[in-house]
Known about the structure:
A hairpin with a 7-residue loop joins strand 2 and strand 3. The protein contains three helices and three strands.
Amino acid sequence: MAKGMGRRPKVDLDSGVEDVTLSILEWLGEQGVGAMIRVDPERMCDGQPAWTFAASGGPLDGGMRADGASVAECMGRALLRLREAGLAVPF
């Protein structure tokens, strides 16, 4: 399916990605990408996805962001987006 058709790929919530999040951030830094993950308690209380991953710089053609209700969902979405942008994240 073409990009932007309104369907999102499924994220594997049991992949263990939350266990390697710090390693992913470190690897991205080594590639010249500034990245962060944060939690917003106000969004959590409102029932919105509270976790946000953001990255920019290095080989990325601009900034990117991924949100999720859990660290696993957020980082799973972030990895999908990073790979779509051409970064072969080794985790």
